[in-house]
């Protein structure tokens, strides 16, 4: 069965680690790539211990606090403009956000996702022990001081809490620790999830929470997408039935990367790609 070509994980220039590319330029590129739908997922980190490091977004040429609502007003205005401009061309434009989960962020996430008409709220873990394990420059500081057992305990404990928070439509790059951890710990890290992830996947299924296939692993030298095929199969066995695909593009060239292969993988496993509209999943 042919599945819609979607990219549900895209970082326009609001994200502080993304290239300064506008929503409109991503939409133009999406048309060239013949995508049916694009969802922008500006990234916010909320850990107060990292307030001076990454609790920011770029807005109108300035770095402003994510707690300053001006950027959200501007973000939704820009998204609405793109929605109208590209409607006739057949490209659907969705409003999303990627929240870097940390303990204590729940109130703020609940507030903005109630007050603003998001289509898609993506939950992610980027930091453990206040260190960005998803960052090339910061992650060695974490990996050097933690054993694999510690990583396993800290990552999956936090993941369990993320899912239980009930605030997220979908979980991004569930095995993100492989991104830079594989080089540090070696192949043993590939089985880190075994025995820890199954109950979390079961809880996701119970909550009808989605799981993302994130293709950005490829440009970082990993053999598989996030998650690995093994985890994807475990998710299906646990009853997870909602899947999205996303390139995690931080620049125009990365948009749509690996999407067709990710869709083929879903098809092979008899799983369906989904889109989200106002936080409701629909198979596509
Ligand atoms: Zn992420
Ligand atoms: Zn991302």
Describe this structure in words.
The chain is of the alpha/beta class. The protein has one domain (6-283): Metal-dependent hydrolases (TIM Barrel). Helices cover 36% and strands 21% of the residues. The protein has helices at residues 23-32, 51-54, 70-87, 106-115, 139-145, 148-164, 178-185, 198-206, 229-238, 259-268; strands at residues 6-10, 37-45, 56-59, 62-65, 92-100, 120-124, 127-128, 131-132, 170-171, 210-214, 243-246, 274-277, 280-283. The strands form 4 sheets. Strands 1-2-5-6-9-10-11 form a 7-stranded parallel β-sheet. Strands 3-4 form a two-stranded antiparallel ribbon. Strand 1 (6-10), helix 1 and strand 2 form a beta-alpha-beta unit. Helix 5 (139-145) crosses helix 7 (178-185). The model has no long low-confidence stretch (mean pLDDT 96). Residues 98, 124, 126, 172-173 line the site of one zinc ion.
Terminal CA distance: 10 Å
Biggest β-sheet strands, sense, barrel: 7 strands, parallel
Principal-axes geometry comes out as globular
How many helices? The count is 10
Average pLDDT, to the nearest integer? 96
| Helix percentage range | 25-40%
How do you describe this structure in short?
By secondary structure, the protein is an alpha/beta fold. It is 36% helix and 21% strand.
